Amino acid sequence: MTPTASRLQVRLDGRRRWFANEWFFKWHFIGKDGPVSIDSFDGSEIHLGGIKFSGSARDLFWDAIVRGVRKEVDEQFAWIDDQVRHYNYEAANKAIDECGLQLITFVRSIRRLAVVKDRILRGNGTEFPPEDDAGNWDFISDTQILSQAQALRVALPVTLMAVKSGAANASLGKREIAARLWHENQWWLGPIAFLVGLAGLYPLIF
Predict the structure, then answer these.
(1) Using CA atoms, how far apart are residues 11 and 7, in angstroms rounded to an integer?
(2) Which residue in 70, 95, 123, 170 could disulfide with 128, CB within 3.0 to 4.6 Å?
(3) With contact defined as beta carbons under 8 Å apart, do 36 and 48 qualify?
(4) What rounded mean pLDDT belongs to the chain?
(5) How far apart are CA 125 and CA 52, in angstroms?
């Protein structure tokens, strides 16, 4: 595992605990007298109190958690982008692949937590309805995350591509390098070689 993927794993473990122990936990108190303030992940907060977890309250729950997970994925991709710029081309590609898979696992785990919490909140403490995933996860599906990873890979700086090219050239022998240079530059090396040849023949002719 690349260092970036290892650090991302730690970051995601921390975020997963935050969702489980703080964000989801607050929803247990919306039926109390005092309002509860819950992050809606759009720059504002949800304020609920003295109501059951149904109807609009449940809609707010699902809209917010999907939005929050999507925001989390975008922020982590921005962090990954910054990290892989310090790698060579091959290592950057490997790190992006590993991190993309970790983000897929992260989204699945939070989604699962949301389904479990939704069922508990709709219950009465002793009886619970069937599980129901009411979130619209289309924009953070496995396919979407892999597409974001691919976009990040395509956007790698040109300097990393140059490092890749340089490493490939280093593995070639001197003859292969010379042949490649001639093939790529013969349009201007040819005339120079011709003139040099004429200069060498000049003393013999005159």
Answers:
(1) 6
(2) 123
(3) yes
(4) 85
(5) 13
3-class SS letters over the chain: CCHHHHHHHHHHHHHHHHHHHHHHHHHHHCCCCCCEEEECCCCCEEEECCCCCCCHHHHHHHHHHHHHHHHHHHHHHHHHHHHHCCCCHHHHHHHHHHHHHHHHHHHHHHHHHHHHHHHHHHCCCCCCCCCCCCCCCHHHCHHHHHHHHHHHHHCCCHHHHHHHHHHHHHCCCHHHHHHHHHHHHHHHHHHHHHHHHHHHHHHHHC
Q: pLDDT, tens digit, for every residue of 19-70?
A: 999 999 999 999 988 899 999 999 999 999 999 999 999 999 999 999 999 9
Q: Which residue has the tokens 């040819």?
A: 190
Q: Tokens 């303030």 map to which residue?
A: 37
User: CB neighbours (10 Å) of residue 101?
Assistant: 15
Q: Are 129 and 54 in contact (CB under 8 A)?
A: no
Where do we find the tokens 């300097």?
Answer: 159
Both structure tokens of 127: 């009886």
Residue 201 confidence (pLDDT) above 90: no
Q: Quote the CA–CA distance of 147 and 59 in Å, as a whole number.
A: 28
Residue found under tokens 């009411």: 134
